[in-house]
Amino acid sequence: MFMGIVVLTMKASVIEMFLVLLATGIHSNKDMTKKIKRPKLAVPQINCDVKAGKIINPEFVVKCPAGCQDPKYHVYGTDIYASYSSVCGAAIHSGVLDNSGGKILVRKVAGQSGYKGSYSNGVQSLSLPRWRESFIVSGEATKAYQKPPVPGTTAQPVTLMQVTGAPATEATHTSLPKPSPSTGSTTSSLRPQPMGHRSWELGRWSPSSPTSSHNSSHASPGFVPKEELSTQSLDPVSQGDANCKVDLSFLIDGSSSIGKRRFRIQKQFLADVAQALDIGPGGPLMGVIQYGDNPAAQFNLRTHMNSQDLKTAIEKITQRGGLSNAGRAISYMTKNFFSKANGNRGSAPNVAVVIVDGWPTDKVEEPSRFARESGINIFFITVEGATENEKQYVTEPNFLNKAVCRTNGFYSLSVQSWFSLHKTVQPLLKRVCDTDRLACSKTCWNSADIGFVIDGSSSVGTGNFRTVLQFVANISKAFEISETDTRIGVVQYTYEQRLEFGFDDYTTKSDILNAINRVGYWSGGTSTGAAINYALEQLFKKSKPNKRKLMILITDGRSYDDVRIPAMVAHHKGVITYAIGIAWAAQDELEVIATHPASDHSFFVDEFDNLHRFVPKVIQNICTEFNSQPRN
């Protein structure tokens, strides 16, 4: 009996000791967890004048302050910027930020020749013949994830050769700390990494405050951008095939009817396309939208900048299932995909390739028309299309011709079997890369030479003349103006004529608007016929062959000379003429001057102050006429 009591007492003591040790261990574990808990992420703020070349990291996230739109912060290039540029100025120019500042992701790429200047978002970038290093700015990768902490590591600063407000003679550095190798490492320094190498050691850095210096002793654990926004290859960075510079979107069929095996064949087709294309910032860029019941972007144009990373991303795509709503996918693409934030470059044609199993389960005509009018070249690949017996089930008869950019056969490919899809890679890419034949890149906004012929006679007066110039400016603002897009010229006339500026004189919208504002009032008689002849000879004779020629004539009275023969000559030369009369203008003359039908090309307003009301109507008629052209 006594022995039993002793045994029970001993068991109780052991259990008590075990519980104490267990509680102590849990408490210690909580303390350890607290000790290694990662501090809150911080992003360093840089000044507006910091150049990308002063930061040695191949990829980094920083915060720009407000006010970097100032022209004193120089930017060189368009879309791809020379590293001599202001980081924050380039972010505003590219449309990633506005003048209020914010976080951005910067990726270094190889240097190049021929950085092109342009005006965008209030920033005028400059041209540069060549530079040793470039960078691309993104606003989508500022969300970052953290690598799990490694116990025993300490933070060491990565020194950036970044001058922030110091004199040029003073070597000032900003530190972006990063973790050192673990205590068990056999080396005290990191191995040099090639540009573009995706590495935890190189990419994992922790920002200090903007005021931290090179001897900063406190560093927070670091981060890298999200993986799908920064998949960099170990190979040297390619600029891409400049002979196939297109912004390309594939709309792939993820419907349930396609099945898993054929969906894998479709993915392999995309991988073959990615392999055949030399993807890069100076060549083709590619994104993918998958559709079923509803569409979703798998990745956009900015996400992957080389073919190998693109193939890796394609392999990870999983099937959505549902119906085959291609029309809904085309509408989604037009509204969302080809935006500057998603990598649309503006200088490259927009191309969409829609792959459909059999036929769409919704209508594609209206979404496709909207896409065409937005400048998107739609190609269709129909795999295992409807047989004669199946055509009764097709939602929209003749959907193919209603969808593609042109109905001449160039934009459609029919594949008899999914197992033959791979044979269309080269025929498709030959067409997609033939940018001269991408007819839908031309829209009413970017394909015209517009010549304004303005009445500067004495009856107009100085104040009303300024109203006319504002009318001209308001119409010009609606168009995409550049050396290769829409161009603007202005002629003023009285008894005589004067070329205020020609099509080649100004190639940016801001320069055009400033030139219009500088036009001075002339005063004199009204010789409209002579003015039309002068505009044909001095302005439209220098129009490009691939441009629509539009003349917009504005007058406030009857002409002293005959307008019929000059108007006929203009029409015969293919100049589409709009006649706008004010106050005392003769409506019979306006109808003679205007292109047929006169009801669409001539307008009359009773007084100058009401002229602005016709701006939307004139622009609408210009675009309606363009979009009604035959699609064969």
Automatic annotation (TrEMBL):
GO annotations of cellular component type: interstitial matrix
Short name of one Pfam family: LCCL
Coarse class of the protein's main subcellular location: secreted
Domain of life: Eukaryota
Protein location: Secreted, Extracellular space, Extracellular matrix
Keywords attached to this entry: Disulfide bond, Extracellular matrix, Glycoprotein, Neurogenesis, Repeat, Secreted, Signal
Record domain VWFA: where: 247-432, 449-618
Region called Disordered, residue ranges: 167-237
Stretches assigned to the LCCL domain: 42-135
Compositional bias of kind Low complexity: 174-192, 206-221
Any GO BP: nervous system development
Signal peptide segment: 1-28
UniProt KW Signal keyword: yes
PROSITE patterns with a match to the protein in the record: LCCL, VWFA
Function: Promotes matrix assembly and cell adhesiveness. Plays a role in spinal cord formation by regulating the proliferation and differentiation of neural stem cells.
Quaternary context: Binds dermatan sulfate and chondroitin sulfate.
Name of the protein in question: Vitrin
Species per Swiss-Prot/TrEMBL record: Zalophus californianus
